[in-house]
Specification:
With 210 residues, the chain is α/β, with parallel strands linked by helices. It is built from five helices and eight strands; from the N terminus they run βαββββαβαβαβα. The strands form two sheets. Strands 5-2-1-6-7-8 form a six-stranded parallel sheet. A two-stranded antiparallel sheet has the order 3-4.
Length: 210
């Protein structure tokens, strides 16, 4: 498969310590995406990243709701919200990008989840789609037409980033071996892949680019 990378950007979603083995919200085998993403980066002139960056009082943290446990669902700011372990707290080592991830050629990092009243899975919008991170406008200002999405986690932040990219009119590609899922349900990653494909994303392997 020949892929034209003109006017394209690579988006690296949330490859942060807390989402990697040993982290507060570890994605199984999450560290396996790092060498794949590093190889892919060599093909792109334009690279951006997203970074979960929560205040410690974030409403998505189970610890901030007395008597509630991780995995329970509540209503937060009129939206259904899964309660997560405390993770990616602004300025913490858990919120930092993994040291093995090459970031020498990144153009910009877009922080998300900074509002304690609403979670933000997508790299473009909060979950209520009321606040933007600026990523969409930034890519359009740079004449980007195609985005290639990688990172963590496939069934949450990657999926919603892909779906929003499609909604914003970008030709959108998911690099399937450069993402891993949380898999709260056994087939969640596969279901996420199918949902993204159904909405118009093109699913690739890194070898298709390399």
């Amino acid at each position: 498969m020949a892929i034209d990378l003109e006017n394209s950007a690579l988006i690296i979603v949330d490859v942060q310590n807390d989402f990697l083995p040993g982290g507060a919200l570890a994605v199984n085998d999450g560290d396996k995406v790092i060498p794949v993403i590093n190889r892919i980066q060599e093909k792109f002139e334009f690279i951006v990243a997203t970074q979960d960056w929560h205040p410690s009082n974030h409403g998505s943290f189970a610890a901030n709701h007395k008597g509630k446990k991780v995995g329970e669902t509540i209503i937060l700011n009129n939206l259904q919200q899964i309660l997560w372990p405390t993770h990616c707290v602004e300025g913490s080592s858990g919120a930092a990008f993994h040291q093995g991830l090459n970031h020498n050629n990144w153009r910009k990092v877009f922080k998300k989840g900074t509002n304690p009243k609403v979670d933000s899975y997508s790299g473009f919008f909060d979950n209520g789609r009321k606040e933007q991170t600026g990523l969409g406008d930034y890519l359009k200002s740079k004449k980007i037409e195609k985005v290639f999405v990688t990172g963590l986690a496939a069934d949450f932040c990657v999926k919603f980033t892909v779906l929003d990219a499609l909604d914003l009119g970008f030709q959108t590609f998911l690099i399937t071996d450069a993402t891993k899922g949380v898999n709260l349900a056994p087939n969640a990653t596969l279901d996420a892949f199918n949902e993204m494909k159904k909405k118009g994303a093109v699913l690739l392997q890194s070898d298709d680019l390399l």
